[in-house]
Amino acid sequence: MPPFATPTPRHRRTRYLLPAAVLAGALVAASCTAAPSATAPPATSAAAPSSAGSASSGSATTTGSAASPAVTVPSAAPATVPGGSAPADAPSGSNGSATATTGAPSGTVAAPLPSFTGPAVTPTTPSPARPAARISTVPAADADGVSPIAPVVVRSSGGILTDVRVTNPEGRRVDGSLSRDRRTWTTTEPLGYGRRYAVAATATDPAGRTTSTDLAFTTLTPADTVYPSFMPSPDIRTVGVGQPLVVIYDKAPADRVAAEKALKVTTTPAVEGRWFWWDDRTLHYRPRDYWKPGTRIQVDAAVYGVDLGDGLYGETDRTLRLTVGPAKIAKVDDATKRMEVFVDGRKVRTIPVSMGMNREITVGGRAISFVTPSGTYVVQEKYPVKRMNSASYGLPTSYDLGYDKDIPLAVRISNEGVFVHSAPWSVADQGVRNVSHGCINIAPDAARWFYDTFSWGDIVTVTGTSTRLAPTDGFGDWNIPWPEWRKGSALA
């Protein structure tokens, strides 16, 4: 038996496994406190030392070294292994029945091992199994009346998304993007009105377990849709410094605030501007002052999916892009009967004119004035040849002042019929007197130059006449003072 080992019953089968440093310290402490007995008798047998690890053929007595330290204990009896069995760590060859002595003289036992106290050992409890990945969606399963512009979002918690499919009734997949951590998928295109969409998604957790979900939802169905048109039309790329931006809805939106918020104007450089409700379907936008030449303009009518009130929703999104050209301004003064033309602030031409005669007649109880109104006009359109008929403003062609004829090189500047055009019949009057029905007459060569030079958004001003241009006549926007213009917005 090893030194300082206390025999242990077989049913416990316990080993004392102490660090070598602790055991060495115990031996030193024992040798310092108990000296060897001077009267110790010799060992009771000629057996080999215990360190040899051998035993006799029938029984064995293991002895310790004569130098083993001992502590005197009165009337101590030899320690006997109960049941006659050897300890589990006894040397091989023992017959299973032995009496073990401590190796100290009779009446003594070997010094006990010093006590050792360590941290308490807490039994470990197995961690509960982690739940599998979970999938959530917006909208939820079987949702109805879903906005077609609200993004469909699929999320995974406790795992990553390994497959997401959103399909329309024809089976076409809706475009979407996956987040960098692969836990969120979001649609990147709008859905259709009144359609049922299917969602199928799969997520995988760190343990490799998969979770799947399948659901469907339905988008809203409008009572009717509203289409936005632009002026100028999208095929026009360059405009003058006076061009208002116009959006015309084909049906009157019940919710003007929503209809106006759906419109966005982006300019480079940035300018202060505001929308103005012209009527229940039409909005105009202009800056405080004329546009700067070179300004880039983008108008976005992002109306699709927008609730415009009373069951109306936007039909489609539209975009208009324009660039502002040189500043072209024609200034007509009734006092001089001249038109001075400026391009980017430089006067480039002076043209004699004849404007509307200073006369008024009554037809069917309605007064018709031929005076050209003073104010700021904006070029709207132009025609190589324009058919003009006095009946269009209430004057029958049968009257002595009535007419119906083709007019060359006609540039429209108002809805009420004011044009700048070629008038070879009034050349002698141009620069002298006003003889027209309201248009600005100029000579054929000057008309050709003006027609080729002026276009959408360029400015014509008239001063000195007895009447004023109505702000609602064509693009009369610049005749409304800025403080009043701001009040015309639904967001004011």
Structural overview:
The protein has 492 residues and is mostly beta strands. The chain folds into 4 domains: 1-116, no CATH class; 134-218, Immunoglobulin-like; 225-324, Immunoglobulin-like, CATH 2.60.40; 328-476, L,D-transpeptidase catalytic domain-like, CATH 2.40.440.10. Helix content is 7%, strand content 33%. The protein has helices at 20-33, 256-261, 444-453, 482-487, and strands at residues 70-72, 108-110, 134-138, 153-157, 160-167, 176-178, 184-187, 196-204, 210-218, 224-226, 228-231, 238-239, 245-249, 263-268, 273-277, 282-287, 296-301, 307-309, 312-314, 318-324, 328-333, 338-343, 346-352, 360-363, 366-369, 375-378, 381-389, 404-412, 419-422, 440-442, 459-463. The strands form 9 sheets. A 5-stranded mixed beta sheet has the order 23-22-21-31-26, with no helix packed on it. Strands 3-4-7-6 form a 4-stranded antiparallel beta sheet, with no helix packed on it. The longest helix is centred in the first third of the chain and has 14 residues, at 20-33. It is elongated and about 105 Å long. The protein starts with 19 loop residues before the first helix and ends in a 5-residue tail after the last helix. Residues 1-116 have low confidence and may be disordered.
